[in-house]
Amino acid sequence: MLKIAGIMSGTSLDGIDVAIIETDRFESSKVEIIDYFQKEYPAEIRERIDKMINNRHLDAGMVLEEVASLNLKLGELYAEAVRTASSKAGLQLSELDLIGCHGQTVFHKPGGSKTVSLQLGSGSVIAERTGVDTITNFRLKDIAAGGEGAPLVPLIDFLLYRSSHSHRFLVNIGGIANYTWLPADCNRRDVRGSDTGPGNMMIDAGVQLLTDGKSNYDKDGAIASQGELDQILYDRLFKHEFFDRAYPRSTGRYDFGRQYTEKMVKEAYARGVKDIDIIRTLTEFTASSLVESFQEELASEEMITLKKSDCLEVIISGGGSHNTTLLELIEKEISERFHNYRTDLISLADKDYSQYDIPAIDADQKEAVAFALLARESIMKRQGNLPSVTGAKNPVITGDLTPGDTADFE
Ligand SMILES: Nc1ncnc2c1ncn2[C@@H]1O[C@H](COP(=O)(O)OP(=O)(O)OP(=O)(O)O)[C@@H](O)[C@H]1O
Ligand SMILES: CC(=O)N[C@H]1[C@@H]2OC[C@@H](O2)[C@@H](O)[C@@H]1O[C@H](C)C(=O)O
């Protein structure tokens, strides 16, 4: 058996998630979470990343120094987070076989074979501080093979969640939202996946703007629950050029970050739209763009034909699964758009999903577990991408390996 620490820092910039798992060396779905640990970024680090990705106040000459410096600093923070998670799990670092670290995306500009993407968090620092073999930079090999380097989790969704009898959409609502489509009894060539647009990113930015930074997000969807849809803003948001791109597609802050949100919010504000209605509209837009995108995938000719009696399970994870208003809107969209099918919405934020035949991985743990398993696939020299999802020309073994030091030096 292998003990692996998976580390994820997502586009929301909320911090570091570490999952320590036990699994075998095979492509199996046998995963036990030994411990899970979340740590917020120190405010100073969050501010530095935020400045960098939003191009704020950075003297051009300083940009490279800041990239190099944050790469090292994040490596230190990731190593520290693994150390804390291991001791919480009652493990010595030397008992870990492997670390898989996604890093912090600071730039991602998709564009087919012209995609550029950068994740920071040095594997050398992590391996040096922990002594554990460390895999980082999971996206670049896929990009080298002509893909967009994202999303990568669909491969792990395939390994963990495919079912012989249910059709499944797995939807992760982080900063960006993305889905994996697993038709019943699928093989890996049948899997489809794509980013759908913003997850919490525009809602967070809208709340931050309208509260002058006093709140970072719409806790439990409380603000959105009080507002009403503003149709003009809603229609305007759907005119974003992202929605004209072909599937599969990936996105990021470059498309839906603070600058874009600020522009949209200011336009609505100038028309006298109330704060709560703006947040409501951003939430409705997020829900609709998400459900519309997997409806479009289902309608595409490559998809298998579903029988009306088939059950469609929609499994939701990520921080957005805690936003009750967003989930209600997604449920409403699903029942309207998929009224011909039996649908079941399963939120991994609900503690009680045990009646379903799915692994016990909670909403906030799923991506960290996925990067632990992607590290396993890498070290075992197995495929780490799905060309049908990323657009790569071929499957690749993903990730850069930095060995931990167990050699005898003379
Ligand atoms: N109780 C809550 N109510 C509403 N929203 C919440 C709640 N808890 C978390 N969130 C949202 O979830 C976000 C964090 O989600 P998550 O950690 O899944 O994103 P991420 O991993 O950073 O992003 P990505 O998956 O795109 O890389 C927060 O920024 C916030 O918007
Ligand atoms: C470039 C990048 O960091 N993309 C993230 C982001 O966050 C969600 C979505 O956009 C997805 O494409 C991806 O992350 C997940 C973990 C993935 O690769 O599956």
Automatic annotation (TrEMBL):
GO function terms (MF aspect): ATP binding; kinase activity; phosphotransferase activity, alcohol group as acceptor
- Please verify whether the record's keywords include Kinase: yes
According to the lineage, what is the superkingdom? Bacteria
GO biological process: one example: 1,6-anhydro-N-acetyl-beta-muramic acid catabolic process
For this protein, what reaction is catalysed? 1,6-anhydro-N-acetyl-beta-muramate + ATP + H2O = N-acetyl-D-muramate 6-phosphate + ADP + H(+)
Question: Keywords on this record?
Answer: ATP-binding, Carbohydrate metabolism, Kinase, Nucleotide-binding, Transferase
Residues bound to ATP: G10, T11, S12, L13, D14, G15, I16, D17
What are the EC numbers?
Answer: 2.7.1.170
Question: What pathway annotation does it carry?
Answer: Cell wall biogenesis; peptidoglycan recycling; Amino-sugar metabolism; 1,6-anhydro-N-acetylmuramate degradation
Protein function? Catalyzes the specific phosphorylation of 1,6-anhydro-N-acetylmuramic acid (anhMurNAc) with the simultaneous cleavage of the 1,6-anhydro ring, generating MurNAc-6-P. Is required for the utilization of anhMurNAc either imported from the medium or derived from its own cell wall murein, and thus plays a role in cell wall recycling.
HAMAP family in the record, alphabetically?
AnhMurNAc_kinase
Q: Which family does it belong to?
A: Belongs to the anhydro-N-acetylmuramic acid kinase family.
| Stated name of the protein | Anhydro-N-acetylmuramic acid kinase
What organism is the protein native to? Halonatronomonas betaini
The root-end lineage is:
Bacteria, Bacillati, Bacillota, Clostridia, Halanaerobiales
